[in-house]
Design a protein that fits this description.
Blueprint lengths: L4 E4 L1 H9 L2 H16 L9 E2 L8 E4 L4 E8 L3 E9 H4 L1
Parallel strand pairs: 1-5
Antiparallel strand pairs: 2-3, 3-4, 4-5
Amino acid sequence: MGQFVITRTKRFGKQFLKQPAKIQKATEQRLKLFAVQPNSPQLRHHQLQGKMQKYYSINITGDIRALYYCDGDTIIIFDLIGSHSQLY
């Protein structure tokens, strides 16, 4: 991955605000890490399968994930955040 722009959907914003403050802080830290080192082992970055194959997942905490998709080669759009059971 080269230069890219990271943005968030309105849905991501609403789901983010429903998370506890501790999770919100962890999310901001992980998104900053993702911006400079998207393949960091801490993120456990991977593409999803099946009906969600357009999404990629990064770990925020043990159970919280942030999902994004790409719009072309340079725009990354974070769309969903929640626990593993909420998202899958």
